[in-house]
Every structure is written in structure tokens, then in C-alpha cells.
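Give me the fold.
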Amino acid sequence: MSVARVSEISATSTRSFEDALQEGVKRATKTLRNVKSVWVK
């Protein structure tokens, strides 16, 4: 049985869009386990 959880994260960066994504994922993995993918809205 598969279980998925969706969490919405916001992140910003003055450097680049990609840097904002990396910072958001880095911050999320401090409290969320097993982050497998990112979907950009």
C-alpha cells in the first residue's frame, strides 16, 4: 500500500529560481523525511 503526503513550501532567493528551489527543499528536509520529488506551481 502506498501512502503519499503533500506539503506546500514557499521559498525565495535573490540569486535565481533554481536557488530558491534548492533552499526550499533543503529547509523542508529538516522536518520532513523521505522527500522524493518537487512539483513547481
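The chain has a mean pLDDT of 90.
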